[in-house]
Design goal:
Helix 4 runs antiparallel to helix 7 (about 185-205), helix 6 packs antiparallel against helix 13 (about 275-300) and helix 10 packs antiparallel against helix 17 (about 405-425). The longest helix has about 35 residues, at about 370-405. Strands 1-2 form a two-stranded antiparallel sheet. It has a single domain (about 10-425), classed as Growth Hormone, Chain: A. The model is unreliable at about 440-450 (pLDDT under 50). The chain is mainly alpha-helical and about 450 residues long. It has helices spanning about 10-40, 50-55, 55-75, 85-105, 110-140, 145-165, 185-205, 210-215, 220-230, 235-255, 260-265, 270-275, 275-300, 300-325, 330-360, 370-405, 405-425; strands at about 175, 180.
Length: about 450
């Protein structure tokens, strides 16, 4: 592939970091949610299948809300833009109900109360996700979206590190504070809720959607864009969506059970269990921006496939980690550190895949249907997130019945590696979506996004 100009526009990092405040809110909430909500649910339920099924609630809401709200925001026209009105309502609501999560899980609470808080939280959070993400391609030219997505993913990773490395250990803190009472199991969620609201205020104060993105244009029908993606001569967008469906099957099959695996197999406390996604987030953060720059030079598809191979290797290492470290007689602490190291490399490769896949899809869209393509990305990724936890939970239950709890929990890594391998082969058939290419799926009379 020929080398491409990688010189960035003036003020690129400043505006991209400001846009990334919206993604910061998601990065702050998601790892804490994925780590501790299964633990909260385990206080009321014993079946991993039921826990996995409840954990799909946010993904089920996302499956419908993100495409609908993204399409609505495409056709919203206000003095403050298309995306901002949705962001100002949904993101603060997410922060408020996120702070209320541990209260539903108190000994005085109930499974019904916990599920009710989970439902309202995800109603707001998933409605926010489409407009938050679509804010970036509305502002950044198509040629530089891998780099911009790298910056934004770095913001999300920093938030995940704050949540998992800084806040998660506070789960074990047992103090009594005025108004709050006992902070045990509550403090990380309360602090996160406040930070989400502060980030929303800063986003509104400093980010303005581009004039070109705010231009009133003829409404793009959802069915028109769907026909272009799934019925056109170029199937690259469809193949990207199918590929990401499989790699999210792999990722979401592991994620909901990582806290339980860390606590039950590796023997760490609830507070330290939060370091598992934290190690992933650190690796994610370190390579997100460089991977966008490298992909601009050598091609997004090539980098994604290389990183999928790295992910499969990391997952296979996780699968053999417990029996190998036990056979070597390593101490639990050393075994735990090695596991975190594997997760770190997993995070590096995973961050590179996510950084470059979204821009490939956006490259095939135009301003009139940017939200629709954003919604399609989430429709497929959340569809995988709905499907995978119950499957991996059932795999755990099946192998636990036959071989014991440790062997059952380890099987999630083998399951995930198979899904990532399928994604690798599908991605090999994708053509297009590279920096500087015109929008392949633009309708008549539409301009390109770059």
């Amino acid at each position: 592939m020929s080398e491409k100009n990688t010189e960035l526009p003036k003020g690129f990092y400043r505006i991209t970091i400001l846009i990334g405040l919206g993604f910061f809110t998601m990065g702050l909430m998601d790892p804490l949610y994925d780590t501790y909500v299964p633990i909260f649910l385990a206080d009321f339920l014993t079946s991993r299948f039921l826990i996995g099924a409840i954990m799909t609630l946010d993904n089920l809401l996302a499956l419908f809300l993100i495409p609908i709200v993204s399409n609505l925001s495409d056709n919203t026209h206000t003095p403050i833009g298309r995306r901002m009105p949705w962001i100002l309502v949904t993101v603060p609501l997410s922060g408020i109900f996120f702070a209320l999560l541990p209260y539903g899980a108190l000994p005085s609470g109930s499974l019904v109360a916990l599920i009710l808080v989970i439902f309202v939280l995800n109603l707001a959070k998933q409605a926010a996700r489409g407009p938050v993400v679509a804010l970036m391609p509305d502002t950044i030219p198509g040629e530089y979206r891998s780099e911009a997505n790298g910056v934004i993913n770095t913001m999300g990773a920093i938030a995940a590190i704050v949540g998992t490395i800084v806040l998660a250990p506070l789960m074990d803190l047992d103090l009594v504070m005025p108004l709050i009472g006992s902070v045990r199991r509550r403090l990380p969620f309360l602090i996160s809720g406040v930070l989400v609201i502060i980030a929303t205020i800063l986003l509104f104060a400093f980010v303005r959607e581009s004039a070109k993105a705010r231009e009133k244009r003829e409404r793009t029908a959802l069915r028109t864009s769907l026909r272009l993606v799934f019925g056109g001569e170029d199937r690259s967008a469809m193949l990207i969506l199918l590929s990401l469906f499989f790699w999210f099957l792999g990722y979401q099959g592991v994620l909901p059970f990582m806290g339980i695996y860390s606590r039950q197999v590796l023997g760490v406390s609830e507070g330290l269990a939060g370091l598992s996604p934290g190690a992933v987030a650190i690796g994610y953060m370190l390579l997100a921006i460089p991977s966008g720059i490298i992909a601009h030079r050598f091609g997004r598809r090539r980098i994604i496939r290389f990183c999928l191979v790295g992910i499969v290797i990391a997952l296979l290492l996780m699968f053999v980690h417990e029996p190998v470290t036990r056979a070597l007689g390593l101490s639990p602490f050393v075994s735990w550190v090695i596991f975190l190291g594997i997760l770190f490399f997993f995070g590096m490769f995973w961050g590179s895949v996510i950084t470059n896949s979204f821009p490939m899809l956006w490259q095939m869209a135009h301003f009139g249907n940017m939200g629709i393509y954003t919604g399609l990305y989430y429709f497929f990724s959340q569809g995988a997130a709905i499907t995978s936890p119950p499957i991996s939970g059932a795999v755990i239950d099946l192998f636990t019945f036959g071989f014991g709890d440790t062997a059952g929990l380890r099987m999630i890594f083998l399951y995930s590696s198979i899904m990532m391998s399928v994604a690798f082969f599908i991605m090999g058939r994708v053509h297009g979506g590279e920096p500087g290419e015109p929008a392949r799926n633009a309708g008549a009379g539409e301009g390109v996004t770059g």
